[in-house]
Amino acid sequence: MSAIEYTWDHVHIRTPDTEATAQWFADMLGAEILRAPGRVDIKLGGGMIFLAPVTPEMGVNPPPVTPYQGLDHFGLKVKDIDAVAASLKAKGVEFTKEPHTLKPGLRICFIRAPQGVSIELLERDPKYT
């Protein structure tokens, strides 16, 4: 029996405003907004993010306050993380952790997207010591 291979398909975000959430990802991170009948999704970094509309009658819980158990964040690789961070700050993006060198060769920061979604930005480069 051969090994099973898994590949990424999508991340799913529930939101009360799919258009506003999609626009945030487009404006702040350069995501491509994809619209189909009854759907608004985004493509970011080669991956898909599906946006599911939430209405009050659905009884969906509010976004969790970090840290919490379960999915903590997703990460996006960037080049020149400090320039990326400066650009995002100029756009008003909220940083939950400022850019810092976590260990030799790895510099990271965290930002907050709509609905409390945590996104790690990271750059792997030996110049970080």
Quick structural overview:
With 129 residues, the chain is an alpha/beta fold. The chain has helices at 18-29, 81-90, and strands at residues 10-15, 32-36, 39-44, 47-53, 74-77, 94-103, 106-112, 118-124.
What gap, in angstroms, lies between the N and C termini?
44 Å
Number of domains: 2
CATH homologous superfamily descriptor of the largest domain: 2,3-Dihydroxybiphenyl 1,2-Dioxygenase, domain 1
Largest beta sheet, briefly?
4 strands, mixed
**Class based on secondary structure composition and strand pairing:** alpha/beta
Write up what this structure looks like:
The chain is α/β, with parallel strands linked by helices and 129 residues long. The protein folds into 2 domains: 1-55, 2,3-Dihydroxybiphenyl 1,2-Dioxygenase, domain 1; 72-129, 2,3-Dihydroxybiphenyl 1,2-Dioxygenase, domain 1 (Roll). Helix content is 17%, strand content 40%. The protein has helices at 18-29, 81-90; strands at residues 10-15, 32-36, 39-44, 47-53, 74-77, 94-103, 106-112, 118-124. A hairpin with a 2-residue loop joins strand 3 (39-44) and strand 4 (47-53). The termini are far apart. The relative contact order is 0.18. The model has no long low-confidence stretch (mean pLDDT 92).
